[in-house]
Amino acid sequence: MSKKVWIYLENGTFMEANSFGADTTSVGEIVFNTSMSGYQEIISDPSYAGQFVTFTMPEIGNVGVNDEDMESMGAFTKGVIVRKYQDEFSNFRADTSLENFLLAHGVIGICDIDTRYLTKMIRDEGAMMMVASTQISDKDELKKILESSPRIEDINYIEEVSTKEKYKHKSANYDSVNFMYKEPPKVKVRIVAIDFGVKRNILNELVDAGMSVDVIPNNFDAEKLIEDYKAKYIDGVFLSNGPGDPLVLKKEQEQIKKLIAAKIPMFGICLGHQLLSISHGYDTFKLKFGHHGGNHPVKNAKTGTVEITAQNHNYNVPDSITEIADVTHTNLFDNTIEGLKYKDEPIFSVQHHPEASPGPKESAYIFGEFINVMKENRT
Amino acid sequence: MPKRTDIKTILLIGSGPIVIGQACEFDYSGTQAVKTLKELGYRVVLINSNPATIMTDPEFADRTYIEPIKEDVIYEIIKKENVDAILPTMGGQTALNAAMSMHEKGMLEGIEFLGANPSAIKKGEDRVEFKEAMIKLGMDLPNSMYAHNMDEAQEAAESIGFPIIIRASFTLAGAGSGVAYNIDEFQTLAARGLDASPISQILIEESLLGWKEYEMEVIRDKADNCIIVCAIENFDPMGVHTGDSITVAPSLTLTDKEYQRMRNASFDILREIGVDTGGSNVQFSVDPKTGRMIVIEMNPRVSRSSALASKATGYPIAKVATLLAVGFTLDEITNDITGTPASFEPVIDYIVTKLPRFTFEKFPEADSTLSTGMKSVGEVMAIGRTFKESMQKALCSLETDLCGFDEMKGDMEFIKHEIRRSNADRMLYVAEGFRRGIDKEEMFDLCSIDPWFLTQLDELVAEEKNVDVELLQNADKLRKLKADGFSDKKLAELISKNSNMTYSENDLYSARKALGISLEYNEVDTCAAEFKALTPYLYSTTNITKIPTKNRVSEKRKVLILGGGPNRIGQGIEFDYCCVHAAFALKEMDIECIMYNCNPETVSTDYDTSDVLYFEPIDFEHVREVIENEQPDGIIVHFGGQTPLKLANPLTAIGAKIAGTSAKVIDLAEDREKFSDFVIKNGLKQPENGLATTKEEAVQAATRLTYPVLVRPSFVLGGRAMRIVYNEEELRKYMDEAVSVSNDAPVLVDKFLDQAIELDVDAICDGKDLYIGSIMQHIEEAGIHSGDSACSLPPVNLSANIIKTVEEQTKKIAFGLGVIGLMNIQYAIYQDEVYLIEVNPRASRTVPFVSKATGMPLAKVATRVMVGESLRDSLKFYDNYNIVMEEDGILKPRLKDHVSVKEAVFPFNKLYGADLVLSPEMKSTGEVMGISSNFGISFAKSQMAAGNIIPTSGKCFLSFTDTDKASAAEIAKGLVESGFSIVATKGTQRIIEEAGIACESVLKISEGRPNIEDIMKNDEITMAINTSDNDTAKKDAVLIRQVVLRKAIPYFTTLAAARATILALDEMKKDSWNAPKAIQDFLAD
């Protein structure tokens, strides 16, 4: 007989389901993701720290888990919620089952539950906090745990997911014809990437585009980077994706402001994009249930074409930012801003995930644009 | 950019008759295209020879030509209608080939191709050009070589190695294709492929047997925006035509890296091929061991799988492709379901399973092994939250009496054989294998089906063992089993088996309801619930979680229409046509229309057709739950053929309200004994008949009636297992087979009326008045299934007296039975007497044909009548062409000055080994219509449209049965007068010569060489009239028919058809005899 798990949501919803993965109790924010492939990449994406991910794709576990598709060293999601978990997997690259993977990383898995019901609830009521436990079945007790836990906005997950040491990222993109990582191409420019919980494939893309990438922790010193930039040790700074509410990252914002003032070329993705907005004085706002999936149409203002994009964010930059930046990309689902180029500054950023993984690859050209910005800046 | 204004008139080419490989999905796409273009204000001209299509309804296109889809006809239409552009991508391979051939001949100068330009079509379709394009892109391809003759083929085979795939170029649905495991097979297949290819070219290819197969449904606009609408994964590994494969959506065994690779490759391929605007599908194969991905093919047009993808996701590919073709870009189009832009990629939170529907039981001689040539005649789609639920629902949808993974008989050796062999029931044998203890590794070795799918089947079978009586009280366990898709009937069967007691489907239902477990309904919303769905397109699921639910609420009056399910022989597009018309009629009355069906190819399952759509198996359990959810004010069971009609009784028993003709009346007409009483009471005449439940009873009955007799099981459609038997031996043989067919229901034995004229009558009754929609005269004599007969409207040569008698009898029957709505009656005229053959108190196959021919939409009129309006008012509402008149208290159409001929279209060329003999058992898959000012031309047009093109000169082979030999001279004379020379086998030849007509003689195959087979193979014969012996055991006749098929020689198998051909030949001598004329003009004249 399968193990039971009980969940309690802050709107009072209490449900029983089966569990796979870790035997534990955990608290986090519940969101849903509509991607139909790439559960491993999603679960290992550090941006999901502090969150339970509800997969709308009903069959999960089918292709197991492998070493190559990891987006980080582990799994930072609080829990995984699926309609059906299949322990027996089938894929030539699979090393182990999703359950084994979750067990290894202490992540709770919830299955045999109506994920569509939860999705509609999140859609209508917004993302909310929840608790899941394989140990406690009492609704009131779960409610108590939830109420005594901090909300996602109050936790700084960056400290947990950012690298502790500086390191050089050496791998380029994945070659999905020969199923191996490619060797890096010739270096055109040098950058540092500030790790707020960076996805491995972002670093791969940066390297693949011709960048030498040093990854540094979130508690970086802007003065040092400015010196390096002036000394031409580096040509630009990349601000990564990451979990949580960007407004709480005061320390990081202060440092970024200095980089802006120093006119260093910068490129931000997701959280990086949001931090650039905040650091320019335009605070982000929280979306009702965020964008999480691999099918969002984004219009490129320059080319007029539509890119199908990978998305994972709960916060967004405000429309008022158009006072100081041009909108380069717009989400056609809800017309929110997806990409910005700051006026008279060598800075640009996107909200969606051009590195995909999982998701469509057509926005990957953006990494090449970063090189152009840095080169232009030097001439 | 908005729509283009530089084009005004657009010609849309339909796909013609339903054949294997081209079914009603092209009515679905074509109808969407016509609607869309009309809404944009274009003038739409349409050509399609298939009258049973919604798109050919006179009110859809501006000008509708129900004409053969032939180049010269299309050319005339283009000139006549000032066509600016042509949309050839909505009518399958037929439309694409016609347009391309015309383009190459320079017949389309100044006419723009919309959707895909000729060079893109060529690149996508021509295997050599496609291969070059793929190599240029760096795509991996199977090792392959082309051959144009047997020597080249042999060489290629030696260099590639066995097994080998042979594919014929420019053919439909894999015709002329196959897998060869040895040199003998290879030679047969290569020869067949070279024959089948119009350019005598075959591709000889490395076999990818056992590899996984995928299809990507892609849309691209002129701004180069590309999206994948749906990724479809085949359950069956490579080696089975995708139309014959079980397929699922979304793809289930790919990691994101592999999926994105395939997605990118799809876009690159569309760009390279040059499909600038519209939908295409690209097929890939993946080696499960290494991930090596190979491109198989692409279709630069909408297809069967795009119809499936549209229904699976709710994303209307044909509609969007049409908008793109006339200048829009994806971001300018709105997704009707969510109100968001159409430039996104649909995501789904359920699993879709498509199962093909086969009819091998009708062609026992045909090879039932599935291969690269398509053999299925239809398909069902089911939606469930998990693969298990989806798959089991799909099995229930097939209407092959399955209620899940039913047990299969046979010893282990046989079971393994059937697991190894690709066949229609393979999934059932796989389940049976697990049931008997085959482990997953061995199973994979046997069938190469992906282990993930095998696990699902293995688990389902394992669950069966835990089903016992306790289940009826265990809510958790029952909920789990229901969520895995076990039907009530299956669970009842399992409990009965495991407990040695008898439980019914209803016991299970009651227990389930007592435990609070009902089916729930989810929306097909293109977005996995991310946005609120605006369109109620629904499927059922048993929720794994108990959540609060509520029924759909609506203030309006509601009518539920039960559809016809999968296309199969005997129940095809004609019934879907009627259901769609019912929906239209209800909309016009402002009654809420709830459509219910499980066939993804259809117009009825377009969410636009009805107010609410349920995509569900048409069985008692699922229909009943929808009725509980909707509480409809009426249910139309009469339009979807026999499938929904069978539910009339059980639904009435649970208190559901059947609209129109009641279950009691249906039962009376179907129950032979009760009906015989009715016939006697009303002074009507039936062929003498008897009823038999045993072999001896049948023999006694036949002896009493005297041979020949017509035997058939009761309650069947399409003449399943119906046969004319001429002696006791045949009858005994038949009874051995028939009893298993009819599940011990009685067998009917009728006196067979030899050489009688058969009539089909469609009528509508409201209890007060009767409208006789038409009297059609069959061209073939009684004894050939009415669905397989050509027929003429009006009748060709009936006396006024006979017509009057038929009308009076029809009235007597309609009122006597108490029909409210449509009915169809078949009569036979035998020695100037009218005999009643069959009464069906439901819509018939001929309703669309009659509606087109007369201009009165019978199904719409009947719908109004069934929901309570008077017949007179209903007729008035639809009498657009002012045809209704009254004579002797009977309403009927005033026939205009045209003759319509319906001809049946057969699948013999697709089912290798099948014999092209007509019989009481229906074998045709589709129909065409010829319409003109006289019978001869209409018949000629109908033959042309059916692909049986009557030649106007050459050598005609004649062979007659002994009873027909008397007419040999008459036929020969007609042919010679039309300029043919005649050749016949000895017996026939002598009779013809004796009548003073020159006739060559030729040896029978058994008589030596050169014989008839040789001269046919040498292309010396341009036409064959062969009524000889329907007994397939006669080797000569069978062989001749095989050559006729292979060489595509026009052929006629009855005397009546031969006579019609001679009439046609007279007309075909005249100039521009086949000048096209729009149906709107015929009806208005």
Task: Describe, in plain words, how this protein is organized in 3D.
The complex is a heterodimer of chains A (379) and B (1085). Chain A has 379 residues and is α/β, with parallel strands linked by helices. Chain A has 2 domains: 3-154, Carbamoyl-phosphate synthase small subunit, N-terminal domain (Glucose Oxidase, domain 1, 3-Layer(bba) Sandwich), CATH 3.50.30; 158-378, 3-Layer(aba) Sandwich (Rossmann fold). Chain A is built from 10 helices and 21 strands. Chain A has a 10-stranded mixed β-sheet with strand order 10-14-13-15-16-21-20-19-17-18, with helices on both faces. In chain A, α8 links the parallel β15 and β16 (266-269). Chain A is globular and about 65 Å long. With 1085 residues, chain B is of the alpha/beta class. Chain B has a 7-stranded antiparallel β-sheet with strand order 14-13-10-11-12-15-16, sandwiched between helices. Chain B has a 7-stranded antiparallel β-sheet with strand order 31-30-27-28-29-34-35, sandwiched between helices. Chain B has a 6-stranded mixed β-sheet with strand order 17-18-21-20-19-22, sandwiched between helices. In chain B, α32 crosses α33. In chain B, a hairpin with a 6-residue loop joins β13 (278-286) and β14 (293-299). The chains are: A alpha/beta (379), B alpha/beta (1085). At the A-B interface, α3 and β17 of A face α8 and α15 of B.
Reading side by side through the largest sheet of chain B, how are the strands ordered? 14-13-10-11-12-15-16
What is the first-to-last residue Cα distance of chain B? 42 Å
pLDDT averaged residue by residue of chain A: 96
Distance linking N and C termini of chain A: 68 Å
Largest interface: which pair?
A-B, 59 and 58 residues
How much β-strand is present in the residues of chain B?
15-25%
Q: Unreliable stretches of chain A, pLDDT < 50, 5 or more residues?
A: none
Largest sheet of chain A: 10 strands, mixed
Strand fraction band of chain A?
Answer: 25-35%
Number of strands of chain A: 21
Could you say which overall geometry of chain A the principal axes of the C-alpha atoms support?
Answer: globular
